Amino acid sequence: QVQLVESGGGLVQAGGSLRLSCAASRGTNARGWFRQAPGKEREFVAAVNWSSGRSYYADSVKGRFTISRDNAKNTVYLQMNSLKPEDTAVYYCAAGRLARDSEEEYDYWGQGTQVTVSS
Question: Cα dist. 93→7, 12, 15, 109 in Å?
């Protein structure tokens, strides 16, 4: 079993930045971030392969968001820059087997953290 604890959400104006953190109780091969906006399905944001460091991004966040990891702390970060109102959502951290955009690859999920971007 893996416990994931997220932090760093909040309210920010459009164009601003936030950094989300997700600490895990133990390591896994892949870590990802997903988000769910009101009335919409949960969608992939970014993922990282823990051993290689290779990262993957949804087209909607490429060039604005950066996923990174701290091996010693078993923590993954999501640096979000140039935020837009459409980035408003609950952001979920996930841990699993493959760094992919499918929820099926992830076995463990955090509780979610709210990100609100005002216009």
Answer: 10, 20, 23, 6
Longest Cα pair distance anywhere in the chain, in angstroms?
40
Is 90 exceeded by the pLDDT of residue 98? no
Identity of the residue numbered 113: T
Instruction: Report d(CA 43, CA 17) in Å as an integer.
Output: 20
Q: Whole-angstrom Cα distance, residue 15 to residue 33?
A: 20
The answer to whether 31 touches 50, Cβ cutoff 8 Å, is yes
CA atoms of 24 and 75, how far apart (whole Å): 6
Residue 2 has pLDDT above 90, yes or no: yes
Task: Give me the torsion for CA of 56, 1, 25, 77, rounded to 10°.
Answer: 20
Strands 10-13, 113-118: pairing kind:
parallel
pLDDT in tens, 39-68: 999 999 999 999 999 999 999 999 999 999
- Closest by Cα among 80, 92, 68 to 4: 92
